[in-house]
Amino acid sequence: MNGCCLANPISLRCTRVHKLTQHPDYLYARFSNVFVAVVRGQPTLEMVETMESHMLDIRRESDRGIGFLLIKMTGAPVPQDMVRKRAGRMFKALRQDLRAFAGVSEGTGFWSSATRAAMMTITLFGRTPYPMKIFGTVETGSRWILDQFALCTTRESWVGFQTDLRDLRSAWEAPTNIDKTG
């Protein structure tokens, strides 16, 4: 069985990674109260506003707070100033609801390392009431964020989470056969 089981004060339920929004530049998903954003294109205001809308939905539905797993794919550009400012307002508005942030900058080259260093600098000076950590792989970042909420505590549930996320990403990243000429 894919997905993770978690103890809920009301019941024991199993959950899976669910796709929320699919766009050529980003994929948003949810696993329990953890919001997952996979970004490969230029960040836009629309991207941030959609992200915030999904996190507000999680806030309304969960009293456990929000976990945020941000996965920046290799080669994804950095946000422009107005997008960074809008994202800052989003984080400020959700400050009391966020319980943990895991940032992943995929890749092994110089730019991926530089991006992780820049992300780490932001977390050091962010002064957030929740823990923030930066990772080089999706596996380490997702393991850490899920541990913050005691999700995926068995090997079976962890493998289920990884499989669900990998399957969603594979379907999103696959080339499409859509004729864009007409």
Defining key terms:
6-stranded mixed β-sheet; 182 residues; 8 strands; alpha/beta; disordered N terminus; disordered C terminus; 5 helices; Transcription Regulator spoIIAA; 25% strand
The first-level CATH class is given as Alpha Beta
Give unreliable regions as ranges.
Answer: 1-14, 177-182
- Give me the CATH architecture, please: 2-Layer Sandwich
CATH topology: Transcription Regulator spoIIAA
Give the distance, in angstroms, between the N- and C-terminal Cα atoms: 42 Å
The major sheet is characterized as: 6 strands, mixed
Task: Count every helix, treating DSSP H or I runs of 4 or more residues as helices.
Answer: 5
Tell me the number of strands: 8
- Approximate shape: globular
Q: Determine the CATH superfamily.
A: STAS domain
How helical, in percent, are the residues?
40-55%
Assembly annotation: single chain
Explain how this protein is built:
- By secondary structure, the chain is an alpha/beta fold.
- It has one domain (14-171): 2-Layer Sandwich (Transcription Regulator spoIIAA).
- It is built from five helices and eight strands.
- It has helices at residues 45-61, 81-93, 110-125, 138-148, 155-173, and strands at residues 4-7, 12-15, 18-23, 26-31, 34-39, 66-72, 98-105, 132-135.
- The strands form two sheets. The protein has a six-stranded mixed β-sheet with strand order 3-4-5-6-7-8, with helices on both faces. A two-stranded antiparallel sheet has the order 1-2.
- Strand 3 (18-23) and strand 4 (26-31) form a beta hairpin.
- It is globular and about 40 Å long.
- Mean pLDDT is 82; it is low at 1-14 and 177-182.
